[in-house]
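Standup notes
- DV: blocked on the single-chain target, sequence here:
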Amino acid sequence: MDKAEGIKPSGYFYTENGANMPLKPKVPCEHPDCPELVPVGQKYCDKHKPLHHEEQRSASDRGYNSKWRRESKKFLEIHPLCVRCLEKGIATPATVVDHIIPHRGDQELFWDRSNWQPLCKKCHDRKTMTEDKEVKYSY
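- DV (later): unblocked, structure below
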């Protein structure tokens, strides 16, 4: 739209000379080695969005529903301590059921209890940010 009409495009502001500027600079696409820039709040460029479809779906759509909450609660009742903390000799209550191998939407792997481990939130966050961050891509 035109400045004279008094309507600004969403996400832009006008400078003194009337040029419209974005409110925030674009950020790099989070796909490894991608140089594309995307708007703030968007993780991936259009080329890489299809490769990260699991991140786009809600937790419920990825299988974390009432059945998961019930089964993970039972699992934590049987396995109440964080396995990572126990390895260090520290007894910390587990609050999260972690998938040892990230399931990436594979329902068989999602429900395989031998792929579950009890972790405290701190250990789960650390694991997710280090081990699980490297997504295995298929082309």
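- Follow-up: The mean pLDDT is 81.
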